[in-house]
Amino acid sequence: MADHRFVHLWWLALAAGLVPLLTIHTTFAVSVLEGHVEWCVPYWDSCTSISRTGRYGTSYFIFKGTMLPAALLGIIFWWLNSRWLRQLGIHASGMAWIPWLGLVASVSLGAYTLALGHAGDGFSLMRRVGVVLYFSITFICELLVSAGLHSHPQWKHAGMRLLNLCQLTLGVGLLSVVLEGVVPEFHDTRENAFEWVLALLINAHALWLAFLWRKSRFRVRLWAD
To answer: The whole model's pTM is what?
Structure first.
């Protein structure tokens, strides 16, 4: 018989990965239907940025209405990741930074979301800084979690797979930087595609963690005196 005093938390990690992914694809589809964006495959055609999909029409409200809760969800998600690692017996170097870095990454996502759709140099700067901090610091959090799992005998293989995913993410990011420096004209035509791919890889890591949370039966206990 199930013990209803416990609530499993894997669904929260699932939401942390799915909500941003579903949001950007929904706003893209709505923007296409409303004529703000042309139909294409953004992962390859690099036809539109993620920001543009949530800047006009109905998509403006969808993007803000889901990404702001996603930012709050991210704060909780990274705090729970640090708790999860400790409960697994992982106390590797850098684990204490995960909730704080996750807080900065999530606040950056919130700032980017609030600035989206508003004109002016200040809002433009907020968007640029917000998205760079969100991607880079989220990647660091994912790297720390992956390395922590890899240091645990029971979770070593799962950690290695997550580290491989981090390497792929880093490779895509570095390729974008190299192309920008070497062939800036070509990079400008592919910059949006890099953004879409990085968003996919970043959130795929969260979805993988959701599977591991479920496998480890990570849960919270509820009780009353």
So the answer is: 0.91
